[in-house]
Amino acid sequence: MTRTATAIVFEAVGRIALRSAPLPPLGPTQICVRTLYTMVSSGTELRVLAGHYGAKERYPVVPGYSTICRVEEVGAEVKGFRVGDLISGRNPVPLPGLGAMWGTQASLHIYATTGEDRPVLLPAGAEPRDYLVAEVAAISHRGVDAAAPRAGETAIVLGQGLIGAFSAAWLASRGVKVIVCDREASRLERAARWAAGCVRIGDGDHEARLRTLADGGSDIVVEASGSSAGAQMALRLLRRKPQNYSSDYKVEPIHFYHQDWPRLVMQANYLEPISIDPFGFVMGEGMTVLAPKDRGVEDRLRVIEQLRRGTLRSQDFVQRLAKATEAPAAYAALRDDPAGNFSLAFDWTAV
Hints:
The structure is a single chain. By secondary structure, this protein is an alpha/beta fold. It has 2 domains: 4-132 and 318-347, Quinone Oxidoreductase, Chain A, domain 1 (Alpha-Beta Complex), CATH 3.90.180; 137-290, Rossmann fold (3-Layer(aba) Sandwich), CATH 3.40.50.720. Helices cover 24% and strands 25% of the residues. α2 (134-146) crosses α3 (162-173) and α2 crosses α8. The radius of gyration is 22 Å and the shape is globular.
């Protein structure tokens, strides 16, 4: 039996359509799933819609890397997955005739059950919408985890789009004092529930304000703005290594501080190059730079467990749940009105 999927397709720069496409045949170690909900990764998908990341040469493409589905069929050799299971998925098998970046915005999918792109199970009896943010939240969780935050430390998060918002919330859950920064007042209002301080870019002295709130410099800075100006400012906001510059000045052995460097977490992608002069921007004598670019199966499972426990709630991050058939207008609103559109998810249950 050939199944037909309905997909959201970016056909050209700024042009969105709904298309039908047949599913590829089900392999012995694959599962066929029906999509219930998908989360839009706003920054990534809007840049794909604008032709970046090589999209212009690959259109038409199906965007998206975050979906909640129910298993409808399992291959003959599948182990561990059953019909009726709820899963969180990423990077499905592409639909014939369409490119994938990364292909989850469709009503039906084929998933491999082995390898790094395999789906992960949701808890038994789960409410699917409670896990809608799992895949996107796992990216920021990996970056926060890599920074090894300690209770009582200070962190500055630049940018309060989805990735920055998740980063701030994860840091706050670890007992870190969190200070956030963004251009949009509405995003700062949203972040106020977990942030100790909120600073608006464009207020004139925003960098000085951040530095004052962080007592001169931050233990952790998460750069989630995606701008070269944000990356440069992130470097300047790291705390300096304590050192005595009095008449008793002494250069300590470098290993004295090497496990206590400030941490810079680069959580964004950049369209323009960023130039760095190490001697001009490295605070003190060193820092740890972390650049998580994806999330692994273990990251995804950890986030699902945190969602189950209520450490984060999907409803705090999903501003609009639109019908999948409304995709062209919904993406346009997300692109054209960032102040009024923090995030977007799609409901596929009627497709």
